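Discussion board: Methods & Data

I've been asked by a reviewer to show the raw model output for two of the constructs in my manuscript, not just the figures. I'm not sure how much to include, so I'm pasting the format here to get opinions. Each protein appears as its amino acid sequence followed by a line of discrete structure tokens. Is this the kind of thing reviewers expect to see in a supplement, or should I convert it first? Here is construct A:
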Amino acid sequence: MTSKQPTTVFRAHSIPCDLGVAACVVIDDKILLVKEAVGKHAGRWGTPKGYANSDEHPMQSALRELKEECGLDGAIKGIIAVRETIRSDIPALFIAYSIHSETTDVTIDHEEISDFGWFDITEIESVNFISKTMKSIVKCALMNTPHMLCLDGSEEAKSPYYLHVQNSDF
């Protein structure tokens, strides 16, 4: 009787995912907020945000949304917060990035955004946010909560590869 060796089969494990991103820009202790012009959150405030496209890294999505909604360029500093849940039977992730911008010269896209402003921590309680989650993200950004740093490992990996960590001293 011969014993059969177990066979290991490696397969890619892909699942659908609802992936949203936010751009948190804080300059001089004030955060950029935008007022939604359309949709279920019309008239409410949040950071520039949107969905990731299938052909881009989430970081790129956050920078794209900032550019599309506010006309600002920026650079990723790290991650402020991640929200995870299940929506319509699929994982739903929302990643809020801390973004450095050199300017406060905002030009909004009036099709998506009806207004914008720079708010400090004393003004946050009076803002009509799109959600409690967004309010928490904004507070973390304004209180200089340590964010996860972005380490670029693309050169070693020979493709785009990013590691987000709390401390780069390892």
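Construct B, same format:
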Amino acid sequence: MDLFQGTLEVLLVIIKVLIGVVLAVVAVNIGLVFFEKITQMGKMGELNILKELEQGNAAVAILMIGVILAIAIVIRSGIASLVEIPSFNIDYAWNVAWGFSQMLLSVVLAIISIYLALWILKRFMEGKDIIGDIKDGNIAMGIVIAGIVISIALIIEISVAGITPPVS
């Protein structure tokens, strides 16, 4: 391996890492915005995440950690498939586009699944206002819901990994 080829490989790795970071940041931001909107639409109880965090609501912070981890878990395979592509070629742009669309689908699936889990949990808890409790600072509820959200993400990740294009 000569110096030029070694330099190109290092540059390729840096580019792949940057692509992965950008996609991850975009996915988490989309997920958080979508999570906030879907909780407001679905009569789960209005939750202004930024306002609650600014007020120091630890229960909301714990729930958001769970949501962020859940999104990261679900999109992990899509981003991994992008950064594992051995070299740039004609198919690279297609793989990046496919990976980005898979990432968006993964975020949507993660948020919908989180919402469904909260909805089902609310039904089991006989109408208990889960989001209201978290909004009121119930840390125990925030921890339990974050745990449920992360557990669901671990299961969903297996399904989402099945739609990842093979690395060529």
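Answer (T.O., handling editor elsewhere):
This is acceptable in a supplement if you add a one-line summary per construct. For B, something like: The first helix runs from residue 3 to 41.
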